[in-house]
Amino acid sequence: MTDYDLKIAGGEVITAADRMHADVGIVAGRIVALGADLGEAARTIDAEGLWVMPGGIDSHVHIAQYSGEGIVMADDFASATAAAACGGNTTVMPFVLQRRGTGLRQSVTDYQALADGNCHIDVSFHLIIADPTPAVLGQELPALVKDGYTSFKVFMTYDDLVLHDRELLEVMRVAKREQALVMVHAEGYDSIRFMIDHLEATGQTEPYFHSESRPDIVEREATHRAISHAQLVGVPLMIVHVSSQAAMEQIQWAQAKGLEVYAETCPQYITLTAEDLRGLNMDMTGAKYVCSPPPRTKTDQAAIWRGLETGTFKTFSSDHCPFRYDAVDGKLNPQARTSFRWVPNGIPGIETRLPILFSEGVTKGRLSPEAFVALTSTNHAKLYGLHPKKGSIAVGSDADLVLWDPTRKETIRQDILHHGADYTPWEGFEVTGWPMITISRGEVVAEGGRVVGRKGHGGHVARGLSPVASQARGDA
Ligand code: DUC
Ligand code: ZN
Ligand code: ZN
After folding, report:
1. Which H or E run contains 189?
2. Is residue 158 pLDDT above 70, yes or no?
3. SS3 label, residue 459
4. In ligand 1, which atom is closest to the CA atom of 62?
5. Does ligand 1 have an atom closer than 6 angstroms to the CB of 360?
6. Are 428 and 65 in contact (CB under 8 A)?
7. In which element (H, E) is residue 255 found?
8. According to the model, what pLDDT value does residue 474 have?
9. In principle, which of 165, 213, 223, 281 could form an S-S bond with 186, CB 3.0–4.6 Å?
10. Would you say the CB of residue 173 lies under 6 angstroms from ligand 1?
11. What atom of ligand 1 comes closest to residue 321's alpha carbon?
12. Mean pLDDT, the chain, as a whole number?
């Protein structure tokens, strides 16, 4: 008779609040004990020299999402969650995209069917509201919030997705009533359209001009507008994928006024710049870096770092949005991608998020280990209603863990990754600190860069209300 199914022995346990040398005892997928010299276990993993941290929670990923006629996302749920597991993650939060003319419930059913039985780690969906009809706002959204889909994203740009100001306000009003958390893609539709049309009219169509078409000004303007709308309604707001100093300063202004404005940033905004979009002498290889908002300048990178160090940003997500480069349904289609306008927006990053932040942040002394855990796991769980089931190493929490070697040096290369894309934007990027073993609800799902878990182990997690959203409840 053993005391535990699994024991992680001798590691340095790091949480968002503390660090301690302790064993972790696991029964039936949950943590049941933390301490020195725990009893016998059916299996013991020796974690001597390793850090034992809550598995990464990536609260912003796109998987098998409809991306336009003739475009196919490079990952399905099996490949995306396998890659995520190898990158030290135990939960990912993809989006259910509502297409105009389709009901929200139907959209949820469709995405859920793609995920069911195919995931290596747990998933929990956000909703994207593209068609806020009276039925969606009055019936479907409230019912879905009750079913555990407690956050939704709205877009201020893109022809097929944009919500105009009145629609944004109406969605926020429903979010307030239902205590859901609104996430916003803050880039201004009209100003981007204006820029694209004028760049194209002067023959400036290479991928690099994607970045010129959506300068920080359009992000700053939309960020301020979204904050103003949220203030008017009296609802908390999460501003995702913040890329620029200008947008960040709007968020800091709001936070200093006491508004409930939360912010997320991503690896691309601390490691890439608009120069990467030039490719090799302005050729199509720049398309590998086309994402929105685009990477900016070194000055912006330094500002984003200050935001990470000082708490402006609560979450660090990948915004994994993978397309193959050398594929007609991806970035490189000579017939269809005649201008940057037609290059699918998004880059892969689900497997590289944690090593990049660890290496650039913890190894280089900019972030404490505890801050790393908060930014990559615990804060995601807290903001999106997954805590304390996820994002913690505590008695009663799911045994979702990553065993991390803080000294291991690796070079990021496409051929060691598991995503469905055919490239990584970080080819040749050197890191110190690497995930060795990923454990999802007590099962080892990835080890030594290999998937060892079972497809179907991961399931959908219905979430509770976001505490920040439920505190703000009132009559809008
Ligand atoms: N927004 C995202 O969140 N991801 C990829 C592209 C985009 O516009
Ligand atoms: Zn977005
Ligand atoms: Zn995204």
Report:
1. helix 189-201
2. yes
3. coil
4. 4
5. no
6. no
7. helix 245-256
8. 47
9. 223
10. no
11. 5
12. 97
Over residues 37-83, the pLDDT tens digits come to: 899 999 999 999 999 999 999 999 999 999 999 999 999 999 999 99
- pLDDT tops 80 at residue 475: no
Residue 94: CB within 6 Å of ligand 1?
no
Distance 153 CA to ligand 2 centre (A): 8
Measured by CA distance, the residue closest to atom 3 of ligand 1 is: 319
**Ligand 1: nearest atom to the Cα of 158:** 8
* Span 2-30, pLDDT tens digits: 999 999 999 999 999 999 999 999 999 99
> What 3-state DSSP class applies to 465?
coil
User: What atom of ligand 1 comes closest to residue 345's alpha carbon?
Assistant: 6
What are 386-411's pLDDT values in tens digits?
Answer: 999 999 999 999 999 999 999 999 99
* Structural tokens at position 132: 């806020």
Q: What is the pLDDT of residues 262-289, one digit of tens each?
A: 999 999 999 999 999 999 999 999 999 9
Q: Is 219 in the pocket of ligand 1 (CB under 6 A)?
A: no
What is the CATH T-level fold of the domain 1-476, as seen in this structure? TIM Barrel (3.20.20)
Q: Is the C-alpha dihedral spanning 409, 414, 415, 421 positive or negative?
A: positive
- Give the ranges where 293-361 is alpha helix by DSSP (H): 298-310, 353-357
What is the pLDDT, as a whole number, of residue 476? 42
pLDDT at residue 473 above 60? Answer: no
Q: Is the distance from CB of 242 to CB of 292 less than 8 angstroms? A: no
Q: Which residues surround ligand 3, an ion (CB under 5 A)?
A: 319
Q: Which atom of ligand 1 is nearest to the CA of 293?
A: 8
Which residue out of 292, 318, 341 has the highest number of ligand 1 atoms within 8 Å of its CB and is therefore the one to mutate?
Answer: 292
User: Which pLDDT score, from 0 to 100, does residue 471 have?
Assistant: 77
Give 309 Cα–ligand 2 centroid separation in angstroms: 23
Q: Enumerate the domain spans of the chain.
A: 1-476
pLDDT above 90 coverage of the chain, percent: 98
Counting ligand 1 atoms within 8 A of each CB, the residue from 157, 161, 185 with the most, and so the one to mutate, is 185
Which residue's alpha carbon is nearest to atom 8 within ligand 1?
292
pLDDT score recorded for residue 472: 65
Residue nearest to atom 5 of ligand 1 (CA): 346
Q: Please, which contacts does 276-282 make with residues 24 or more away whose CB atoms are closer than 8 Å?
A: 276/425, 277/207, 277/208, 277/210, 277/211, 278/206, 278/208, 279/206, 279/207, 279/208, 282/206, 282/208
Asked whether 59 and 380 are in contact (CB, 8 A), the reply is yes
DSSP per residue, 101-167 = TS-HHHHHHHHHHHHTTTBSSEE--EEE-S---HHIIIIIHHHHHHTT--EEEEESS-TTTB--HHH
